[in-house]
Design goal:
- The protein has about 120 residues and is mainly α.
- It contains 4 helices and no strands.
- The protein has helices at about 5-15, 25-35, 40-45, 50-90.
- Helix 2 (about 25-35) runs parallel beside helix 4.
């Protein structure tokens, strides 16, 4: 074990939260699980084992790409909703008609105006 690792181990052992310290085996296992979540890792079936730094870099890059994808999808959704709202509000163009409040079948009860066709 290197001297820096030993000093970190001693520091972790002297703290009240030493039971929370993560062992190197746990770190390796967590990195392995993290690598399995990356799309590149899924295609190689874990055959290629990268360094911890490489796994963390790939993870950060993947998270950034997911954020970009969310932003793009949010923008697309906003544009589609805006188009839908504009279509719905356009006069003379109804996609959804409200049912009439009073339904009459007897024409004699309908109002008659000279400019309205019979």
């Amino acid at each position: 074990m290197s001297s820096s690792r030993r000093s970190r181990s001693r520091l972790a052992g002297s703290s009240p939260s030493s039971s929370r310290a993560i062992s190197e085996e746990q770190i390796t296992e967590l990195l392995s699980k993290l690598q399995a979540l990356l799309p590149e890792s899924q295609t190689s079936n874990g055959a290629h084992r990268g360094s911890a730094a490489r796994v963390l870099q790939e993870t950060c890059s993947y998270i950034r790409s997911l954020h970009q994808e969310v932003d793009n999808l949010s923008e697309t959704l906003a544009q589609l909703l805006d188009r839908l709202r504009r279509r719905h509000r356009r006069p003379g163009r109804r996609h959804h008609q409200e049912p009439p409040h009073v339904i009459t079948t007897d024409r004699s009860s309908m109002p008659t105006n000279s400019h309205v066709l019979p």
